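As described in the Methods, two query proteins were run sequentially through the folding procedure within a single session, without resetting any intermediate state between them. The first query and its resulting structure tokens are shown here.
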Amino acid sequence: MSDTFDGAVFRRGDPGYEEARRGQMWNACVPARFAQVVVHAGSERDAVNAVRLAKHEGLRIAIRSGGHSWAANFLRDGGMLLDLSRLQEWSINIHARTAWVRPGVIGSDLNRALKAHGLFFPTGHCMSVGLGGFLLQGGFGWNSRLWGPACASVTAVDVVTADGELLHANATQNSEIYWAARGSGPGFFGAVTRFHLALRPRPKVMMNSTYLYPVELLEEVFGWAAAIRPRLPRNMEPLLFLRRDLFGHAGPGILVMGPTMADSREEALAALALLETCPVLDRALRREVNVETEIEEMIAGGEEMLYWPNRRYAADNMWTNASARELLPEMHRIASTLPGAPSHMMWILWGPALDLPDMAFSMQSDIYVALYSVWESQAQDAVHQTWVRDHMKVLEPLASGIQLADENLAARPFRFMSEENLKRLDRLRAKYDPQGLFHSYMALPA
């Protein structure tokens, strides 16, 4: 059977199966869920043949493109794991400012290639994120407060459907499939083998300012940040982190950052000046302002500070329009129980909400809050997973929804798109995948 594939096929019990199942998972906390068959596709043809094989054998399909899903949505019991991480080709049309990419392409690799041509795409914030899952779930990328989630810049997709046919889908051709592919994430009812992208001119300047405050100033700093949010320019990515052991401060400490992508140094300086208005600026433990940087430096610095390799992770998140006053009681409780580094809480000052194209992605609010617990010992799994889940559970009355990128649906189902869009997605799944060949979400909100 493997002779019909350019890549490799592993059935459970075969030599190499466990390595194939784990793949390039970033999270060392690998769930004990076991596919019956793992297909490492070596070509687009393999993706087509894998879907046809699954259909023939009655195997439900889960898909992996980069292995960066914290919850490992792609690992399901039984069925087939279709691994597309080896599909890493891309092509750039410099004059049209377009590109097509395979799902296994790493976002940071694409942007390094685009840099040589003065072009840009809003890829993810971690070095090894594959574009397949990133784009399907929406894609909070660099400069997304200005340009929208990355899926808004997807102009078409090539998809293997549940019938085993390879289709092209865009706004006028197979438009229902195109609508669903932009934001449905692990609930998408097909295997995307190629994404067609609209590119942007590369911003000429990237600049950042960094401030570290002691946790005793949490109320002042978070309240100030929420208050200035409406005035922050869209080309700034305003971030607040709560973490222990930052820059020699045992902490917890509050890290405030404002990476800004601008067309001139003057524009960037004007944006970052807003971060100098914090009422407790004189009590900052660290202050580095107006530092010119590059995306590669920001990603590498972020991973060094927050996302360590070979660690176990639990993540959860929420969108909220709540005021700082409403959020602060639970923020204090999170701070007082925060696990050791690099576990952290992150705020993104996202809103006001952007006008978006008609697509499955439909959840955004003023503030994005996410928790990440990071640890080493398997014996501590339950403690850390419970810490993340229980704090987000307390915050549910203040949440408008969650983002699929850092979701925790198996442990805490919560809404991730508008009710209208979720119903529309269900209708489309029934139409295009009536037998449920492709796995849907780990769990759905009640």
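Immediately afterward, the second query was submitted; its sequence and tokens are:
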Amino acid sequence: MAEATALTERFERALVYAAQVHGGQARKGSTAPYVAHLLAVAATVLEYGGSEELAIATLLHDAVEDQGGLPRLAHIRHRFGHRVADIVRACSDSVVNSAAGEAKPAWRQRKQRYLDHLATLDAETLLVSLADKVHNARAILRDLRKPEVGPAVWQRFSNPRQETLWYYAALAEAFQRFLPGQLADELAEIVAVLRTE
């Protein structure tokens, strides 16, 4: 049996940093604190054999895209190192300098660029991205099945249901190609259910 991954104070610092960066932020359409998503994705990465460094990158994977763009990425690089920052950047579908007034490209363009980008990533970075997408898909399915949410879950997204499903189906196909295994299969299974409900 493989030795357990040890988590050090570096992981603790990353968790505190993530909680501060996303402080007060809730999951889309939910009252759950955003850090719950980060913890769930980090747990998945660790459960699938990821290192402490990967778990740290997972805790920070949305900090750049959602909370500060390039200046935030530079801060992460300074505090947590090049590898963590490179994974965070690779897991972001858009990194802009919001402080300089840069705007994100259109949704479909960003998503297609991200799908194309998956082919260039190493297995560790793919694991972080896949764990994130699986948790997001699980959340959609869970809320779709809640009587108080149901089909209204699709209204949380800036695009119609069919566009969101296109993206998740394309992600599932890409991950089954580039990081085949149980987690990629789980994403494909969730997407198949979402298409029928």
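The longest helix spans residues 123-145. We note this only descriptively and draw no conclusion about the first query from it.
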